[in-house]
Each structure stands twice: as structure tokens, then as C-alpha cells.
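Students often ask why inverse folding is considered easier than folding. One informal answer: many sequences map to the same fold, so there is more than one right answer. In these notes we will look at a single instance of the problem. The structure comes first.
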């Protein structure tokens, strides 16, 4: 339980510092729904999701009202559809995606993740069918998110999948051109994807997870920034970076305790096991809820200035240490996100030319995810997109960490234009992509082997 001092501190976080439970995500396994009959399969899916998710939103709202801690998003993650829907072709995958969308709308959740495939070492027929279906599936649904894992530290990088995803990202953008390619905002390419992430667009329920489970994501970039500002202004001595890291760690501890408390009560009321608390500093476009502003509190003129990668490394590490001490059930990613369009400070730095795609790539070597919510010119070649994905996957593979790419080639837009996606997705200026041609490299195909340090047995 929280102590009295922690309760008072938490109340201050709520009133002044944008503390919230960013998401409660209900994981639902669909393996017992499998059938070769597509109508029966989709009916089984909708019935099972309804059985467990019918009261999810109401319970989250009730508990949020009870504690005065809003649960901003209520979400569902399901087993990877490429696996459970393996008998079906691309048209069948589109129908499954629409059935999932209907189930999400019936449950009144914000998003449903798990229209996913794990292809780091090769393709099954179900994997190929799902990836082929992506443009139509994401264009014809509202709440479905898709993740494709194309690399791992144990298996290497499936470059055939990387090449294919470059093409499918382009097609998905074109399929949703009327909405500035927003389908790509629901599509992310991963290396080393975790099985228990509650955040979208990467959430899915891994094959080693329970039949149903509640995972919670707590986000507090505003809380961390205010804690640093307070420490720097109130102390009677000059703080060192070691002192600042301790402030971040203690703040992450308190935020994780709050998230776990909310998640466990939701799980208890729904009579579902509690899984993990994911403390990822996930920003929103709101002023005061920015990861980028933390860099300014740390003494940089802006995110992107020299020293940015070092600050991000310290921030990510301190968040993980504080969260791990607060709970034995920390999971998912639990670090710092740097989604360009979703963070007002990062977006401003990118628009001003202070933050390039290359600098963002360097930062991903020490943060929790990767190149996230980046708008690029709509005419960017598929091979260039694949090359960017390959570079990011290599960072994840070699460093044995999760990395991801969520690029949005905005149809009809070029560098200097801006695009607004609305809501939590925010707005962004179109960023230039690196020059040069990767076509010959990408068309080589095959697999980049796993690094030697993957041989750990």
C-alpha cells in the first residue's frame, strides 16, 4: 500500500503534473477460437472478447473515479492473428480484422492490437496472408493496430520481410491517403517485440501469456519533469547528474506503485489475473506532458542538442531502476518513448531542424522503442523505407533490445509541409529522409544472421 506521504505526493502529481494511467489493456487469447470455418472463427472471436471485455470500460472508469486517477485509454490485445488465422488467405484476414474492429467497438475500447505476425526467421502462409492484407485491413477499420516482428537477437533480420514491409507501408499510406496516410500510424515494425506490451500500436498477447490478463501502462513524463525542476530549484547545493538520476528513479518508483494499484484492482473486479505494469514515459501533444521538455530541464537548449543521447540513456535507465524496485511485475517496455508527432517538444525540435532522422536513430540505441510516429514525404521509395527499417532492426538485434519503426509516408506531402493526425497522435512536420539508394541492397533478400553473442546456451 502507499504510505501517507506517498498519497499526498501522488495527489500533487495528479493535480499539477499530468499523472494518469495511460492504458489498461485486456489481453485475450484466441487460440481456443480457432476454426477452418471463417464464419465460425469470427463468431468465436467476438463471443470471447465480449465475454471478458464487456465490463472493462465501466470498471476502469469506476476505479478511476474512486481514486481520482484517470484511466485514459482502455484497450484489448489478442493472440497474433497470423497464427490463429493461419488457414485463411488475405481476403479472410481482412474479414477477421473487421470482426475484431466490431468487437472493439462493442466493448467501447480505444484500440485493439494483435493483427500481428512474427516473421523474424521466415514466413508461414498465414504470415504472408496477413501482411498482404494490411493496406485494406487498416483502411477499412478504425480501432485495429498491427505489429510485424521482423528481427530478433536470436534469429537475425529477415530481410525479405523488411523489403515487404517497406512496400506495405507505402500501400497502407496510399489506402488511407484521404486521411494523410493514418493507417501507417496503426502499423509498427519490430525487432525483439515483447509479448506483454500494453501500449499501441505494438500490443499483442504472446503465446506464453495467460488465457486472459490485465496489463497496465502508466505514463508520467510531466511528473518526471516537475520532479527534476523542483529538485533543481529547491536544493541548497548544486545537483550533479547522479542526484538527478536519483530523483528520476524515486519518481518512477511512486508512479509505478500507483499504476500497479490501479491495474490490480481492475484485474480483481474483472476476476482476471494481473500481468505487468509498464512504466513507459509515453508523451501526449499536451504542453506539460512531454518527454522532450525533460531534456530542457536537464540543461539542454532543446532535445536534439549535443548531449541528447546521453540524457536519454540516463533517463531510460533511471526509470527502469525505479520501476523495478517498486514492483516485481514490471514488464512491457518500461522506459522512454520518443514519438515525434505525439510530443509537442520533440515535434517542435524536428520542425525547427534541430532533430534529424539520423539523430533520432542514434537515440533509439538507448531508449525503449525506436523511430516512432515520424511523418516523411509521401513519395519516399519503398526501398528507402526498408533501408531505414533495416538500420533500426540492426540496432535492436545487436544490442539485444526492442526497437521499432512507425513511419508515415504522407501522400501528397513533402518536406516543409505539416500534417495533423488529431487526438493523441498529434501533428508533425514532414521530415527529410537520408539521401541515397538502397534498392540493390534490399533486393538481395535473405536473412542477416544473428550476432555471435546470441549463442548463450
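Output (designed amino acids):
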Amino acid at each position: 500500500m502507499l504510505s501517507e506521504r506517498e498519497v499526498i505526493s501522488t495527489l500533487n502529481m495528479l493535480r499539477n503534473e499530468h499523472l494518469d494511467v495511460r492504458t489498461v489493456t485486456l489481453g485475450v487469447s484466441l487460440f481456443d477460437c480457432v476454426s477452418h470455418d471463417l464464419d465460425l472463427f469470427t463468431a468465436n472471436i467476438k463471443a470471447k472478447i465480449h465475454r471478458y471485455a464487456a465490463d472493462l470500460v465501466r470498471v476502469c472508469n469506476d476505479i478511476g473515479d474512486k481514486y481520482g486517477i484517470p484511466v485514459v485509454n482502455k484497450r484489448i490485445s489478442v493472440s497474433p492473428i497470423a497464427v490463429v488465422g493461419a488457414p485463411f488467405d488475405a481476403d479472410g484476414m481482412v474479414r477477421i480484422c473487421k470482426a475484431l474492429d466490431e468487437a472493439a467497438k462493442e466493448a467501447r475500447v480505444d484500440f485493439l492490437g494483435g493483427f500481428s505476425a512474427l516473421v523474424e526467421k521466415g514466413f508461414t502462409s498465414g504470415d504472408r496472408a496477413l501482411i498482404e492484407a494490411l493496406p485494406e485491413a487498416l483502411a477499412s477499420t478504425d480501432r485495429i493496430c498491427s505489429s510485424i516482428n521482423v528481427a530478433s537477437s536470436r534469429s537475425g533480420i529477415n530481410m525479405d520481410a523488411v523489403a515487404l514491409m517497406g512496400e506495405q507501408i507505402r500501400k497502407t499510406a496510399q489506402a488511407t491517403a484521404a486521411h494523410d496516410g493514418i493507417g501507417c500510424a496503426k502499423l509498427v515494425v519490430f525487432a525483439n517485440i515483447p509479448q506483454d506490451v500494453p501500449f499501441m500500436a505494438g500490443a499483442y498477447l504472446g503465446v506464453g501469456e495467460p488465457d486472459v490478463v490485465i496489463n497496465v501502462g502508466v505514463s508520467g513524463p510531466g511528473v518526471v519533469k516537475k520532479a527534476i525542476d523542483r529538485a533543481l530549484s529547491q536544493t541548497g547545493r548544486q545537483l550533479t547528474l547522479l542526484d538527478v538520476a536519483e530523483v528520476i528513479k524515486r519518481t518512477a518508483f511512486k508512479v509505478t506503485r500507483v499504476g500497479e494499484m490501479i491495474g490490480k484492482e481492475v484485474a480483481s473486479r474483472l476476476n482476471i489475473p494481473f500481468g505487468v505494469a509498464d512504466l513507459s514515459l509515453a508523451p501526449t501533444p499536451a504542453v506539460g506532458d512531454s518527454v522532450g521538455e525533460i531534456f530542457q530541464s536537464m540543461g539542454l537548449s532543446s532535445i536534439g542538442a549535443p548531449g541528447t543521447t546521453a540524457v536519454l540513456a540516463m533517463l531510460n535507465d533511471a526509470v527502469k531502476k525505479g520501476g523495478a524496485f517498486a514492483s516485481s511485475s514490471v514488464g512491457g517496455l518500461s522506459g522512454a518513448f520518443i514519438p515525434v508527432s505525439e510530443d509537442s517538444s520533440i515535434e517542435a525540435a524536428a520542425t525547427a531542424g534541430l532533430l534529424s532522422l539520423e539523430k533520432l536513430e542514434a537515440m533509439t540505441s538507448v531508449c525503449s522503442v525506436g523511430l516512432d510516429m515520424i511523418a516523411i514525404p509521401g513519395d519516399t521509395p519503398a526501398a528507402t523505407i526498408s533501408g531505414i527499417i533495416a538500420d533500426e532492426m540492426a540496432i535492436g538485434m545487436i544490442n539485444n533490445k526492442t526497437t521499432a519503426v512507425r513511419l508515415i509516408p504522407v501522400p501528397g506531402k513533402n518536406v516543409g509541409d505539416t500534417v495533423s493526425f488529431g487526438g493523441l497522435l498529434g501533428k508533425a512536420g514532414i521530415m527529410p529522409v537520408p539521401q541515397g539508394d538502397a534498392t540493390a541492397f534490399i533486393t538481395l533478400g535473405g536473412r542477416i544472421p544473428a550476432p555471435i553473442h546470441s549463442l548463450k546456451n
